[in-house]
Structures are given as structure tokens and as C-alpha cells.
Design a protein that fits this description.
6% strand, elongated, 260 residues
Length: 260
């Protein structure tokens, strides 16, 4: 029986999963002379987005429990600090980035639209990496198989978000946030059944947080590319929530606090 909980989502085979693509698209290269106008649409180009730190991003490795997976920027994982769970990942604009709504040939591109694009990229930067680790370290066959599905589907989602960002000239983050890195640290510091439970807890929480944003953007966006992408992201995130819940390891801590 297939593990995929959402019949409309077709992941690539986990056995053939390539590493997370990190070669930045043209729009991800920081322009030190300031934002420029694209040739055809007059849509402003985002400024640099630095997430989870202040150093200039460089190609390095994410170290998770001893294994190196290529990604943009180095994130050291494997310490003992315990993260909080209150805030959703930050994808705020860098200094000098133009806010407001941009006009594109696919329709207006709002700040909420751009926030979704950036946060989906942020999700892949840590969730795909930690899922690849869990394939090797999880203590149960079920968690290992769920992790393979999630890693494979995140690879597909990342290809989609990178293409969209190039089309809309949205600058993408290049490494996980401090919050996400702390979740990775907490997971990697565990072993056995505690590893499985902590892994499911943080991934299910993160998916619940971004699921709310996806629904908001799908309901409000006037940009046809973002509308289609929000539906793709919705299918993937819904499927991942179902897969994580199917492990039987979710607890009240695995779910975001409902909005008032």
C-alpha cells in the first residue's frame, strides 16, 4: 500500500532522491548596488534576504547528526539546546527591500504572496534535511518510510518554488531560521523512540503553522502563478500532516495554538 495520504500528490521515488539543490537562481544573487527594475514588467526586485543569522550566505554543508547535506549557508546541528515553539518561521524583508504590492504580468503580487514563497523555501531548507536524517536514524520502520516520502516530496516542492521565485523575481532565503535550526538541533540530540517523537512533534508543528498561511494566500491572492502554487503547496503540506499523524506519535505539543 502506498504511504502517500493525498492521492493527488505524486512524489518522485525516494531511492533516487538527489540532494537539495542549492545553486542560486539569478534572482537570488545579492545586488549590492540596490534594487533594480526588471526589463518588461516594472516589478521591483527583492533585496537580499538573510535568515537566521547575519553572515553573508555561502555554499556549505548542513551538519545533522554527523551527515553532511549540501545547502546554502552552514547550519550546525547536533547540540543540546531545546527550542521554543511559539513563533512561525520569519521571512521578513531585508533592509532596502521594497514592500507593498508589485504589479506583474500574472497579476498583483502582494507581500503575503511573497511571504508564502519565502516560507515554503524555508520549510524545505530544514524539513528535507532532517527527513533525510530520519531515514537513517528513526527507530521504527514507519517513521523511516514517512520520512522518505516527506523528503522526496519536499524536493519536488523546492523545484516548484525556485521556478516561481525566478519568474516573479522574489529573493529566496538560503538557510533555515534560528528557530528551525534549533528544532533540528533538538531532534538530532535525541536517539531511539525519543528521536522519533521529537522529529514528529516539530515537523507536525511546522506544517500546521504554514498551512494557515497557505489558506490565507489562496483565498486572497490575485496573482495567477501564486494561486496555482498555493494549491500545490496545500496538497503537499496536507499530505505531510497526514503522514506524520499516521505514525501515532503526535501529542498536543505537535499542533499550533488555534487563532482566537
Amino acid at each position: 500500500m502506498s504511504l502517500t495520504a493525498c492521492a493527488t500528490y505524486a512524489p518522485s521515488p525516494p531511492a533516487n532522491l538527489p540532494p537539495l539543490e542549492t545553486a542560486p537562481a539569478a534572482v537570488e544573487v545579492e545586488d549590492t548596488t540596490g534594487p533594480t527594475e526588471p526589463e518588461d514588467t516594472g516589478t521591483p526586485t527583492d533585496g537580499a534576504v538573510e535568515v537566521g543569522g547575519t553572515d553573508t550566505p555561502t555554499d556549505g554543508a548542513v551538519e545533522v547528526g554527523g551527515g553532511n547535506t549540501p545547502t546554502d549557508g552552514a547550519v550546525e546541528v547536533g547540540g543540546t539546546s531545546t527550542p521554543g515553539a511559539s513563533a512561525a518561521p520569519s521571512a521578513s524583508a531585508a533592509p532596502g527591500e521594497k514592500g507593498g504590492t508589485w504589479q506583474t504580468k500574472w497579476g498583483p503580487l502582494s507581500e503575503a504572496d511573497r511571504d508564502l514563497i519565502k516560507k515554503v523555501r524555508l520549510a524545505t531548507l530544514w524539513e528535507m534535511v532532517i527527513a533525510q536524517e530520519a531515514i537513517q536514524r528513526a527507530s521504527t520502520d514507519r517513521v523511516r518510510k514517512v520520512s522518505a516520502e516527506i523528503a522526496s516530496q519536499h524536493h519536488t516542492l523546492d523545484q516548484q518554488v525556485r521556478k516561481l521565485a525566478t519568474q516573479l523575481k522574489v529573493k529566496l532565503p538560503v538557510k533555515p531560521t534560528t528557530q528551525q535550526a534549533s528544532w533540528m538541533t533538538d531532534i538530532s540530540a535525541k536517539s531511539g523512540s525519543a528521536y522519533d517523537a521529537t522529529y514528529v512533534k516539530w515537523l507536525r508543528l511546522a506544517h500546521g503553522q504554514i498551512f494557515v498561511l497557505i489558506g490565507t494566500v489562496r483565498g486572497s491572492t490575485q496573482n495567477t502563478l501564486v494561486r496555482r502554487f498555493s494549491e500545490q503547496a496545500n496538497a503537499a503540506v496536507l499530505n505531510h500532516q497526514r503522514l506524520l499523524e499516521s505514525t501515532g506519535l503526535t501529542t498536543p505539543e505537535s499542533f499550533p495554538t488555534p487563532s482566537a
